Sequence to fold (571 residues):
Amino acid sequence: MRFMLLMIPHGYETAAPGTIPDDVEAVGAMMAYNESMQKAGILISCDGLHPPSMGARVSFPGRKPKVVDGPFAEAKEVLGGYWIIDVPSRADAIEWATRCPGSENEVIEVRQIQEIADYPPEVQALTAEMASMQAVKKT
Amino acid sequence: MSAAPRDDAAIHRTIEAVWRIESAKIIATVARMVRDVGLAEELAQDALVSALEQWSETGVPDNPAAWLTAVAKRRALDRLRHRQLAEHKAGEIGRELDAQHAMAQADFAEAVDAALDDDIGDDLLRLVFTACHPVLSTEARVALTLRLMGGLTTDEIARAFLVPEATVAQRIVRAKRSLLEARVPFEVPRRHELEARLASVLEVLYLIFNEGYSATAGDDWMRPALCDEAMRLGRIVAELVPDAAEVHGLVALMEIQASRTAARVGPSGEPVLLLEQNRARWDHMLIRRGLAALARAEALGGALGPYALQAAIAACHGRARTAGETDWPRIAALYDALAELSPSPVVELNRAVALSMAFGPATGLEVVDALLGEPALQGYHLLPAVRGDLLFKLGRYEEARKEFDRAAALTRNTRERTLLLARARACLLPPA
Fold:
């Protein structure tokens, strides 16, 4: 089962553009954590995200797209990064999340990734192309 | 995690998860102290039992892994002390025992001093090599690897291999005894031996993978899990011996093969052949990972080994967006290399198919016909199946029909038989 561990750092919603993790010790601890997942053979990918002040939100009032640049005034929780892992159970995913050297202001949300096989057959037919869309480029 | 008591079911699930994540490391650490994987597993299990008892009362501790490791180590030290006493009492100690004793002493001091930053990587590597030791039968290596490295229960292993649990339990008990009797050292073999022993490790992993991949019968829900487990173990070994090209080759092969899982079976359970598969249903994340692992194997230089070559072949299919875009000349060339490196009638048969796709059915048929007398392929349904296909393409329908009928009679898989009989019937109504 694939799970996404979503890192939600409180305060990140108002972080200035260009904010980047600079606490060497914390980054080192996080790298050790990533490495432990890699060595356990379960890490599929992980990435950090630039703060929302560098992003944009596209909404659809009246079904028409509307673009708003970040930071977003009402946002209470925003993503700081994520891990995708492949483990046998939800309990395993949670257990891995508990091992993260997170700081006081961080929350990790554990979410299972939908597999095509989870969909009913008629929906599967519609989503069949999805897998081939997932060849994400990694630099 | 909070220390507040939780409901039992949740605690059990957590303990199971902790065990799956930590058991191999704990067993490996303890095995280095006591020099006996069987005993190490027992001590680790003891720690697990203590956890089950205590955590239901007190809740799961903040660092369950450290807790389990500490308890297992403490029990190991107790055992060593006990052994030391017993040996003193025994009085007459042989030379060999003396040596062992000295080792145990050294370990004893080492263990006492050991902080939690032990070199777990080396311990795990020792554990893999010990579980896959050549003194054990292949089945025993597979069972022991899944048990010690994968943290699977005997029940789970038994279900995966469709054998009674008692058989698996027996195999594991006997395997541990054999290791002890053969005085197999808990170590990573030295340089010259490493390669041969690594081959045994890779073989075990691939066996586990194939057991999951080629669902031949029965209760199949555990089997995709076996593929996952083999891939996970493969990735672990790849990180433990990152310089060995073949490890990355095997990981690449497993990932690319596994990428096709969802497309391999049709809606009514019938097998779907590679070229007819809906490629949109392939798991492109696994293909990507497989290609990355193959690139690692290639970057290590030297000629590709058998696993990397097979991965390179699988990669040709993985890269092709449609069956028609498949680079058959390259696949044929890779099969040539594979046939030279590890010749076998089955490789030869596959090479024939690749040649026919690249250079026409007649070229393929020549190679297939050379295999007709091959004793190893008598009774192998794919020989007449491939031959029938080539004859069909050459317009020799009557001969093709006989081959498909023969193939249908030889296969033991009902789905496959249906498919072959349909192809035989199609020979009666050849395309205009």
